[in-house]
Amino acid sequence: MVNAKTEPWRAPASPSSPLFVLTRQLPGPAPEMLSAVGKLRLLESRADPATELREAAAVDATVICSQLTDVLDRKFFESAGPQLLAVCNYAAGYDNIDVAAATDHRILVTNTPDVLTTATADHTMGLILAAARRLCEGDAVMRAGRFPGWSPTYMLGADLDGATLALIGYGRIARAVAKRALAFGMRIVYVNTGTAVDEVPGAERVGLAEALRRADVLSIHVPLNSRTRHLIGAEELKAMKPTAIVVNTARGPIIDERALVKALRTGTIAAAGLDVYEREPDLTPGLAECANAVLSPHLGSATRGTRAAMARVCAANAVAVAAGQMPPNAVNPDAR
User: Among all residues, which ones are annotated catalytic?
Assistant: First the structure.
């Protein structure tokens, strides 16, 4: 057996015509890149794609191009056949995949980092602005014909100039948000458990408790795992200012959504801007009725250019694996 700590992953002999299984249709140029070197099978329109995906993994799939909505757990990898070389996730995150199980079965996992940083940071700032200036509330008022006319005290929002943006996590997206926030005159504090790189001028590293206490806007940018699930719950929300705004463009279960609904209803915090949800695509009861919540349907990376770039990276990973090469974005390069 290969020693995963000392020897790199090496693909078995590549099939003459590898089979790439797509759980959903990928934008161009992925189909063209993949079909140039192998066969494609799309499962999205099948009656039971989850079952067919397991069957493909067991029988003939060389590479699976998965989505963040596909749950690939240990049972899935235990049933996979020896011909399955990799799972190439069409996302920067990979919490939908049991990477440890994939590694145990010598199956590579890849993701699509970097290319969605700008789009997600832009979307985060959009949610911050919309929540701070109550844009969705105002839109609803206008559409319902309930605007009473201009008044000095009507629908007042929050100033961003001079406000403190607290970033939970300090990866690429968080730092991109920080740079945008500086243009609005915001002060930046951040919580980071790793080694920060590309420091944003003036940003201050703090602990979680201080970040909660100081935040006028709290923006979440950590991956979902056992340590971050419900990282922001009832106690954390109570520790914040009643004028604070919570924004999440990372993963929904990082926030206890029931606690968030209660905090929005009772005025524990002022507003929230969400692009991801704990039970996505479903909302926790009461969230849709919170006028002080700005809700977008997981659009963080949803620009034509970004989704195409993600497709290119996903396909490049898959093509490399099929050629017996280490893919450029391997999450578990020591797979055994």
Answer: 251, 280, 298
Pairwise CA distance, residues 202 & 180, whole Å: 13
CB < 8 Å & 24+ apart, contacts of 27-33:
27/304, 27/307, 27/308, 27/310, 27/311, 28/308, 28/311, 29/308, 29/311, 29/312, 29/315, 30/65, 30/311, 30/312, 30/314, 30/315, 33/312, 33/315, 33/316, 33/319
Residue 194's pLDDT band, with cuts at 50, 70 and 90, is: confident
Q: Out of 33-47, 83-97, 174-188, 253-267, which region has the weakest mean confidence (pLDDT)?
A: 33-47
Domain ranges across the chain: 19-115+305-322, 117-295
Share of residues in the chain with pLDDT > 90 (%): 89
State which fold the 117-295 domain adopts: Rossmann fold (3.40.50)
**In the CATH scheme, what architecture does the domain 19-115+305-322 have?**
3-Layer(aba) Sandwich (3.40)
Where is pLDDT greater, at 5 or 153?
153
Residue 81 to residue 56: CA distance in whole angstroms: 9
Q: pTM for this structure?
A: 0.91
Q: Where does the chain show beta strands of DSSP type E?
A: 19-22, 39-42, 63-66, 86-89, 108-110, 164-168, 187-191, 204-205, 217-220, 245-248, 271-274, 293-295
- How far apart CA 155 and CA 184 sit, in angstroms, is 21
CA distances (Å), origin 283, targets 17, 132, 261, 290: 43, 22, 10, 11
Print burial letters for 11-21: b (CB count within 10 Å at least 16), e (below 16).
beebeeebbbb
Query: Using one digit for the tens of pLDDT, what is the confidence trace for 15-68?
Result: 578 999 999 999 999 999 999 999 999 997 667 778 889 999 999 999 999 999
